[in-house]
């Protein structure tokens, strides 16, 4: 008997077609968000659940899983919505989809950097509202990227992809990470390592958050650290909403303690604090880092490979282990 795979969200068509050929599958045709009851029902019946960032798979959900549940094959790289320890203690394998969304997420970080620093969204709003009257020598002045100091927090795959793009734009790349890169990588990216995050923040013109959300990185950009930023500096977040103290960020933006923010992710998605929408010094997009046809198909492919590997009796390469 083929294993029962339950998808919590609608995935790209060819991924779903392939799933149907390989496994018994329950799709989510109207792509609604699963309620907690639906999630619990799914983990009770499935052999394999394919969740996404929109599903909170906490200890209680895992605790109610049926004996058959062998795997949580996450569609996405971030697994902060899954209680990894609870899964591990129940012997449930968790996998993710790293690597295939790196470049697209880095593109969105640079897009946000360009939009907020060059004020393109503000300009577009002015144009669309019919308020643009004339070109002006002093109108819509933003800030040049070239020569500015960019501080990347989290120098994994995505951080490094941001760094290589930033180098092309002429930014000076700095970074803070749990461990320092090897000399050759630092040289290639022209990146300077800062052991002290606080010291790095005080010297940067732009901060880009590219770390995963873990207990160690929750609110890593705390109120105190936002306070260390220079008045002309920008904050870019394509990581997770909870790596920033969002309330403190809003106050810093309202009081112009920092110059602006480019945001792809929020603390309580899909609810976004409405104050962000009224601030001119914010560019905000709805969690679009990996939103390309290519990345989403590649993510689906990895989910398929992860499931098939486990079902065939092997250990999936993209297994995520809890840090115990
Ligand atoms: C990821 O893969 O982590 C994206 O943010 C979507 O979940």
Q: Can you walk me through this structure?
A:
This protein has 324 residues and is α/β, with parallel strands linked by helices. It folds into two domains: 116 residues, NAD(P)-binding Rossmann-like Domain (Rossmann fold, 3-Layer(aba) Sandwich); 183 residues, Rossmann fold (3-Layer(aba) Sandwich). The protein has 13 helices and twelve strands. A seven-stranded parallel sheet has the order 8-7-6-9-10-11-12, with helices on both faces. Strands 2-1-3-4-5 form a five-stranded parallel sheet, sandwiched between helices. α1 runs parallel beside α13 and α5 crosses α7. The relative contact order is 0.14. The mean pLDDT is 98. (2R)-2,3-dihydroxypropanoic acid binds next to loops.
Secondary-structure topology with pairs:
Blueprint: E1 4-7, H1 13-22, E2 24-26, H2 36-45, E3 48-50, H3 59-63, E4 71-73, H4 84-89, E5 93-95, H5 102-118, H6 120-128, E6 149-153, H7 157-168, E7 172-176, H8 183-189, E8 191-193, H9 197-203, E9 206-209, H10 223-228, E10 234-237, H11 246-254, E11 260-263, H12 275-278, E12 282-284, H13 293-311
Parallel strand pairs: 1-2, 1-3, 3-4, 4-5, 6-7, 6-9, 7-8, 9-10, 10-11, 11-12
Helix pairs in contact: 1-13, 5-7
The structure holds (2R)-2,3-dihydroxypropanoic acid.
